[in-house]
Amino acid sequence: MKKVVVILSVTLLFMFGMYSTALSASHMKVALVIAGELGDKSFYDSSYQGLLKAEKDLGIYGKVLPCKTDPANYMPQMIAASTNFDMVVVVGYELIDTLKQVAPQFPKVDYIYIDDVVKAGQVTSIVFKQNESSFMAGALAATLTERKGFPMVNSQKVIGFVGGEDYSVIRDFLIGYEQGAHYIDPSIKVLTGYVGGWDDPATAKEIALDQFHHGADIIFQVAGGSGLGVIDAAKQAHFWAIGVDSPQGYLAPNNILTSVVKNVGNAVYDMIKAKLNGTYKRGTIYTYGIANNGVGLSYSSVMLKNVPADVIQNLIQLRTQIITGKIKVKSYFDKK
Hints:
- Helix content is about 45%, strand content about 20%.
- The chain is of the alpha/beta class.
- The longest helix is centred in the first third of the chain and has 20 residues, at about 1-20.
- The protein is globular, with a radius of gyration of 22 Å.
């Protein structure tokens, strides 16, 4: 009987020992499950940069499991990640239901969900105040569409917005963008359109060109891989675009004013580092806004070239006013 107890004790110690050593940098394995696939030069790529940085700086092992926007892949990829990794970072609202189903089956795995709140025991949620940075983009667009002598703008007070899909986070971008534009001039008209997907640049291009033909000379795209079509339209028709999630100025340096950056990679890196440091808290909601550099504008060389210095200075002042609360930016989530 004693022999059985000893064997059982050793087995349990081995099992729990493996779990604890997985928290050390050399053994910690992190999966990045994305609804689409890498190469969007935006949301997914930003999350991947955080994983790459953690591999380089922290010594963890990371792997990307793309679902390629195919619902048939959601469950298999989530289970594969949960079975073989200590931490699973989930990117894409399409994966919420799958995450809620799978997470309870793997109580030892830490899950990070990016861009919304998932109420499940071991799921930590990362949310962004994209409305704040979008407010600044709206203010920028409104200022320049009315600026006399500014290249590629017409006499109409019209700007545009192209979203990937019509859902809560994209609505939050739009509300901030509209408020920022109307902060500068209440009479500014904002044309809106939705692609219906994140990997359809052809449709996004059609929407952008239609908005351009209806007077929009500055168009903000929040459409992931589809948004590349908006940028292509800007180059073809000679209007201005505003990028999203990652700095996209290099894609069209003569047609992009700036990008509304959502530092997804920073959040991914922060969570991995917190786990290694022992400060990670399961089930917590972490918020990234302008104040903690979770969102903002890309002050790249492209922006410095294309946007007048006085306008940039005004944007910096608006940023400060948002942080101090002098300007209160509306959010779609306030209605929920």
